[in-house]
Amino acid sequence: NRLAFGSSILKLQTIQNKIAEMGLRIESAQLLTHRAAYLKDQGLPFTKEAAMAKLHASETATYVSHQAIQILGGMGYVSDMPAERHYRDARITEIYEGTSEIQRLVIANALIKE
What we know:
This protein is mainly alpha-helical.
């Protein structure tokens, strides 16, 4: 538990807002993923939903890991800390699993056809 000015940073409204936003994004990424999986399991079209899930999950991973580094301050940048490794790992998901731009094109094309 990181301290600032003699008390826990978890009591700071700014930190609480960051944590709330992180939780919101993680939950929505999970829901999108579950929806795409459900559609696939039902034998229904799922390309758009899979692209939405991939895009949102990869961008969420980057956002959340970046916010964790921000909350940890200088300790977040130390290479043997999990937050730094998670940020590096998250960043690559926006590239190797089909770039975010490609996922957006897949989503847009599916929406245009609807």
